[in-house]
């Protein structure tokens, strides 16, 4: 067993020796992969070009998400549906009712999966359809059928061809996820419908055009809709290089066609028969009454429509006699169908007031036509009168004999059922609640079959009698674990030592992870946590009430008189508090004098204070410190930078006003007010203070645009005895209440909101209550499993295990470790499914001990694995099979109610008869603790030398192995000391380059989520309910809307709106009125909701305002989206733009930052790229005049002499202990002189340290001690055997780290992350 995957060996494949050489001279030689851009070139638009584009057969059900919409090619759908063999077009053109059922079934299957789509048709296909009567008729029938359809009529879209400008605008507005279409001609030979035209060329041009626009294409070929998947061939987007592509597409669509205008007909047709009657009348007027058999075929069509209206789908088709064959039938069919097609193409659908499905039944028409031509009795007596009216209205002269037997209206004769082989089988009877519940039709199907009782035979005994060997069924994964243990018994000393070393490494990994989290999470099992005590109303008996304690009627309870002892206690308590206040005040003042970051020391001390007065004093001191620092910086900042820098100061002042105000003295209050007025939030009547500190913005807008994190989240945190270390919010208390009641719960909350802690609360509860009970944690991935194991060890390692049990075990798809011998099992979904369905008695005994199942990231129920196969059925099996309560955690589920209802129904189905189903609670929380702003980086293509620089990055990193920054600095100082002191004669050095790109303009463009929305999608889906805006985004939304509509500007002006809302909120909460408007999330969400409702009203009812709004929204990100909409080399672009991004983030004080990339191979290269750039800038600095002016060589020498002199004096001091008077004073003066000169040099060193910080990417408060410990850990033990460790060793000093799934030094990286972030 190993703690890492098999493919996570060191990069060069060879492990280093145990004795690591000098780390300052490391030479990393691991090769880096080249970056190849996926480019498809071709000379023409043909199948040859298409076959070069990557294609995969995959599950596309994820594209049916709530906010995704795709397109279906209506032209492709037409040909695909008509290609089926059950369309017999020889019988006078098939049956429209079958074709309509095909359309309905296909689209209904998609909508049942919640698919949203648009049906796109290109009218320039029409000339090809018109060359074939069948295609023309069914195309026009399909269009009219869908236009009249109550569900799909709004989804139809018509364009001339792929180059139509309207089509381009449509794609831009819709941003479809793909187009479902055909590429080649459908196999129409099976349907007896032959095509004279080739559609494939045009289909190819549609596909190529979309791929060039980065829109994927799905094939109708092998398109399969299953219960939980939709399989299709996916054509990926690629960079297409085809010369004159648009001209070639234009040449393919050379024949343009304009659809005729649909016109209202004088008649509104109320039935199919009436519609066909008027078409017959018009055709007969054209002289077709003289054509042989044409009136007869028209009469047959009208009669067929009447029969269909009477009988519905169940019709009696008489045997065909084939009176007219071959060309005669084709001629008749073509004439009438062409007339119907023309009518369907030109009539307004409002005139067709009847169901369109049964417009044409070729088989029935043929039967009637042959009877009419053969002079047989065919007209049913029951429809004789109706037919006579239509016969007369159409001016038909065809004599038709009446059939008194009404054969056409008889029900169809039942066909003889085919005998099944199963009828001859004798089946055992089944008495199963499972069968009765889920297959109730079983008993009906087999009611008349031969059934016999199941024999009472134990087959194992029978087979043992003939000496068959039976082995216990074991899961393969446990067989592998068993083999591993057997191998350990047969190992020699060296092999056993290596095996133990691997296990020690694993435990060291867990220990490192625990160390990185610190000790605050460690659970003390000696402490007995209190459970929640329900409040019980107790009626107080007046007889038991003490004297003087009763309530007076209509008045307040009388306060008891304090005794002398109570007064003495109060006085003593006040003295103790006063003494404690002085002690805590002294500690605060001491922290101010400590070297380093005084604010960090004060913040840390603030957490340890107990008295409210002490906290108020500390808060005041912090405000003063921040104000002084801000005043020193303000001259170098522009207005925007001032506002950003002042956020922390404003936040601390807010704390003084809202929390500590009553504990501040008058002078402190006056000082706080002075700083507040200096910031410009209130007028200063004394006209004093630093006017440069004025932020020139009102308080409400400042909170919206800059102080979003200062807005009260309104989460109601309260102390709970069940939880240590923090005060849980209201919704978090609901979670632990559910666990205490042993209820199941579906918990939906954003990432970092604080929902994961309930998992560990649940584990702690199970671990405390028993040494046998088990809690199972289901993790969707191996990477998360390792992290959970580390967290379990960090929290519960103090738990004393009995009976040889382990605290936790793991189980993946291919390996396990202590899976059946632990109390906390961390398992993948597949693993738990195997346990629940295993027939092994030992495994089932373990399953019976499971008391809680925690399913993390439960939204993965709709995700696919690495092979793009859905795992949804596995998650469903788990929910249906577990016999205990569960916690299902997720950050993102859109259809929460559907999921919740399904889980409740699953619990009902699992409950035994007569028992109450387990309760499932729904706990949702939508607010993020810290707001999530959206920004887009302005990407820039690299210059002529960019590709070479990127390619040489790895070689540069390997060659410049010069050790740590301190060593390079020392070497630079030595070099400087050899240079003459005359700075004027020195050669000038190149100016320090701050970036590889010009970053004077901001690289980050902040935008609102509405900028990514498209009108069509919002109309279809509405604004997503979980899309909550940040304060800044809400303000920007108002700004855009108010620029379009004056009424919005007046009604929703933030200053007035929030002032009124804050007053109402304070009144509702029973708070005193405040002169300062402090926002909270409640009134902010009300404001957001009102703006969104106004926005939706524009979208649905005011086209001009909604268009203007979207134009402004799209303008925010239009250029960047246009750049990203076309395929480009993402890896090289990321490598080139990472350095400018880091520069921009550092300039805006937005570091530290986490940078993600989906490509594992590029992660390390991004880190190396930033490192090389910082090294290059540092080298330039060390050669610059700025560095040389510091004169390190003289200062260093002088400092060494001073320190030596001080040491010598300290030794002599011991010898002169008896000296007094002037000698002592003289000695003290010398020491002071030495200290002063040493302090002067210390300032110089500090200045150098500050200068060197520009070449590091560090947080505000980096922990030097943690850095040193981490480096020491990297240099020791097995860690330095890994190539990644050697690389990280060089990167971390620059404030750079990297991590990807499977890195064996993950825990060390996590510890480094704390240092980089300054936590």
From TrEMBL:
Residues 556-569, 1204-1213 have a biased composition (Basic and acidic residues). Pfam families: DEAD, PIN-like_DDX60. PROSITE patterns: HELICASE_ATP_BIND_1 (PS51192). InterPro entries: DEAD/DEAH_box_helicase_dom, Helicase_ATP-bd, P-loop_NTPase, PIN-like_DDX60, SKI2_subfamily_helicases. Residues 1224-1236 have a biased composition (Acidic residues). SUPFAM superfamilies: P-loop containing nucleoside triphosphate hydrolases. PANTHER family: DEAD/H RNA HELICASE, PUTATIVE-RELATED (PTHR44533), DEAD_H RNA HELICASE, PUTATIVE-RELATED (PTHR44533:SF4). This is Helicase ATP-binding domain-containing protein.
């Amino acid at each position: 067993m190993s703690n890492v995957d098999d493919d996570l060996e060191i990069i060069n494949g060879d492990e280093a020796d145990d004795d690591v050489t000098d780390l300052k001279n490391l030479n990393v030689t691991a090769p880096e992969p080249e970056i190849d851009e996926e480019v498809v070139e071709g000379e023409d638009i043909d199948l040859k070009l298409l076959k070069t584009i990557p294609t995969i057969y995959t599950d596309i059900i994820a594209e049916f998400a709530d906010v995704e919409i795709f397109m279906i090619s209506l032209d492709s759908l037409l040909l695909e549906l008509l290609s089926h063999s059950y369309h017999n077009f020889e019988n006078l053109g098939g049956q429209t009712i079958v074709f309509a059922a095909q359309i309905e079934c296909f689209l209904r299957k998609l909508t049942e999966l919640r698919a949203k789509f648009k049906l796109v048709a290109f009218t320039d296909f029409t000339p090809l359809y018109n060359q074939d009567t069948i295609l023309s008729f069914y195309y026009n029938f399909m269009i009219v059928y869908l236009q009249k359809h109550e569900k799909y009529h709004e989804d139809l879209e018509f364009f001339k061809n792929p180059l139509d400008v309207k089509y381009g605008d449509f794609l831009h507005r819709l941003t479809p996820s793909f187009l479902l279409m055909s590429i080649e001609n459908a196999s129409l030979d099976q349907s007896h419908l032959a095509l004279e035209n080739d559609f494939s060329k045009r289909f190819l041009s549609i596909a190529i055009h979309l791929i060039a626009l980065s829109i994927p294409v799905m094939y109708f070929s092998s398109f399969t809709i299953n219960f939980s998947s939709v399989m299709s061939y996916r054509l990926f987007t690629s960079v297409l290089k085809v010369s004159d592509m648009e001209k070639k597409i234009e040449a393919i669509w050379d024949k343009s066609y304009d659809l005729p205008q649909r016109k209202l007909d004088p008649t509104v047709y109320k039935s199919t028969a009436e519609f066909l009657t008027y078409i017959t009348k018009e055709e007969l007027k054209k002289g077709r009454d003289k054509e042989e058999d044409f009136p007869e075929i028209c009469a047959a069509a009208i009669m067929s429509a009447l029969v269909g209206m009477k009988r519905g789908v169940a019709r009696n088709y008489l045997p065909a006699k084939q009176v007219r064959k071959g060309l005669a039938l084709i001629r008749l069919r073509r004439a009438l169908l062409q007339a119907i097609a023309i009518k369907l193409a030109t009539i307004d659908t409002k005139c067709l007031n009847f169901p369109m499905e049964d417009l044409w039944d070729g088989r029935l028409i043929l039967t009637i036509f042959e009877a009419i031509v053969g002079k047989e009795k065919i007209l049913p007596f029951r429809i004789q009168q109706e037919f006579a009216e239509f016969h007369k209205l159409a001016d038909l002269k065809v004599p038709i004999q009446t059939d008194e037997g009404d054969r056409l209206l008889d029900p169809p004769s039942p066909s003889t059922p085919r005998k099944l082989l199963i009828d001859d089988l004798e089946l055992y009877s089944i008495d199963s609640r499972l069968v009765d519940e889920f297959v109730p039709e079983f008993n009906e199907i087999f009611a008349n079959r031969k059934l016999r009782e199941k024999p009472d035979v134990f087959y194992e005994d029978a087979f043992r009698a003939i000496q068959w060997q039976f082995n216990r069924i074991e899961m393969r994964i446990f067989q592998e674990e068993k083999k591993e243990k057997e191998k350990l018994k047969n190992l020699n000393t060296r092999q056993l030592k290596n095996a133990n070393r691997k296990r020690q490494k694993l435990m060291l990994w867990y220990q490192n992870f625990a160390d990185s989290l610190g000790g605050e999470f460690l659970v003390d099992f000696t402490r007995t946590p209190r459970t929640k005590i329900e409040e019980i109303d107790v009626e107080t008996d007046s007889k038991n009430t003490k004297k003087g304690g009763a309530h007076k009627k209509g008045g307040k309870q009388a306060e008891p008189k304090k005794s002398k002892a109570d007064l003495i206690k109060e006085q003593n308590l006040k003295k103790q508090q006063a003494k404690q206040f002085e002690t805590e005040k002294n500690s605060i003042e001491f922290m101010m004098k400590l070297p380093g970051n005084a604010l960090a020391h004060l913040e840390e001390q603030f957490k340890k204070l107990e008295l409210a007065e002490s906290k108020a004093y500390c808060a005041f001191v912090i405000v003063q410190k921040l104000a002084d620092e801000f005043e020193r910086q303000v001259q170098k900042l522009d207005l925007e930078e001032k506002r950003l820098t002042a956020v922390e100061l404003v936040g601390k002042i807010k704390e003084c006003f809202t929390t500590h105000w009553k504990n501040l003295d008058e002078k402190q209050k006056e000082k706080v007010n002075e700083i507040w007025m200096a910031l410009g939030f209130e007028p200063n009547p004394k006209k004093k203070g630093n006017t440069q500190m004025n932020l020139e913005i009102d308080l409400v807008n400042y909170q919206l645009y800059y102080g979003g994190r200062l807005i009260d989240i309104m989460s109601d945190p309260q102390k709970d005895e069940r939880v240590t270390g923090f005060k849980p919010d209201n919704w978090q208390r609901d979670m632990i209440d559910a666990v205490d009641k042993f209820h199941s719960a579906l918990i939906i909350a954003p990432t970092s909101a604080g929902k994961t802690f309930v998992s560990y609360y649940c584990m702690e509860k199970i671990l405390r209550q028993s040494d046998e009970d088990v809690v199972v944690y289901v993790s969707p991935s191996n990477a998360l499993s390792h992290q959970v194991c580390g967290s379990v060890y960090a929290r519960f390692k103090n738990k004393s295990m009995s009976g040889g049990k382990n605290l936790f075990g793991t189980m993946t798809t291919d390996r396990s470790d202590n899976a059946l011998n632990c109390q906390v099992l961390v398992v993948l979904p597949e693993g738990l499914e195997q346990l629940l369905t295993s027939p092994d008695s030992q495994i089932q005994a373990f399953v019976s001990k499971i008391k809680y199942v925690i399913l993390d990231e439960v939204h993965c129920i709709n995700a696919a694995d690495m092979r793009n196969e859905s795992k949804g059925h596995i998650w469903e099996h788990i929910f249906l099979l577990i016999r205990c309560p569960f916690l299902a955690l997720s950050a993102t589920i859109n259809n929460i109610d559907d999921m919740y209802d399904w889980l409740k129904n699953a619990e009902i189905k699992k409950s035994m008869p007569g028992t109450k189903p387990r309760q499932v609670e729904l706990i949702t929380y939508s607010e993020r603790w810290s707001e999530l702003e959206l920004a887009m980086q302005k990407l820039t293509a690299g210059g002529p030398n960019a590709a070479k620089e990127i390619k040489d990055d790895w070689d540069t990193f390997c060659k410049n192995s010069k050790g740590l920054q301190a060593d390079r600095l020392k070497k630079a100082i030595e070099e400087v000391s050899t240079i003459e002191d005359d700075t004027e004669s020195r050669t000038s050095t190149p100016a320090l380059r701050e970036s590889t790109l010009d970053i004077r303009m901001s690289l980050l463009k902040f935008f609102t989520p509405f900028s990514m929305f498209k009108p069509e999608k919002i109309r279809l889906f509405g604004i997503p309910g979980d899309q909550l805006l940040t304060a800044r985004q809400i303000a920007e939304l108002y700004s855009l809307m108010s620029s379009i509509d004056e009424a919005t500007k007046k009604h929703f002006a933030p200053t007035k709106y929030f002032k009124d809302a804050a007053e109402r909120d304070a009144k509702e909460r029973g708070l005193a009125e405040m002169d300062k408007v402090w926002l909270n999330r409640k009134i902010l969400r009300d404001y957001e909701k009102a703006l969104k409702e106004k926005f939706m009203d524009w979208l649905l009812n005011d086209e001009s305002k909604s268009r203007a709004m979207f134009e402004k929204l799209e303008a925010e990100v239009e250029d960047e989206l246009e750049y990203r909409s076309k395929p480009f080399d993402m890896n090289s672009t990321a490598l080139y733009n990472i350095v400018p991004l880091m520069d921009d983030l550092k300039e805006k004080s937005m570091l530290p930052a986490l940078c993600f990339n989906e490509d594992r191979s590029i992660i390390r290269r991004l880190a190396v790229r930033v490192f090389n750039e910082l090294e290059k800038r540092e080298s330039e600095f060390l050669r610059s005049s700025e560095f040389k002016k510091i004169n390190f060589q003289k200062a260093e020498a002088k400092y060494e002499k001073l320190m030596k002199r001080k040491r010598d004096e300290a030794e002599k001091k011991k010898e002169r202990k008896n000296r007094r008077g002037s000698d002592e004073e003289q000695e003290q003066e010398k020491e002071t002189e030495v200290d002063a000169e040493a302090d002067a040099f210390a300032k110089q060193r500090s200045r150098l340290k500050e200068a060197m910080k520009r070449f590091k990417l560090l947080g505000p408060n980096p922990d030097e001690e943690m850095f040193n410990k981490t480096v020491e850990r990297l240099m020791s033990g097995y860690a330095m055997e890994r190539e990644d460790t050697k690389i990280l060793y060089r990167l971390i000093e620059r404030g750079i780290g990297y991590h990807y799934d499977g890195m064996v030094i993950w825990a060390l990286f996590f510890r480094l992350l704390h240092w980089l972030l300054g936590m």
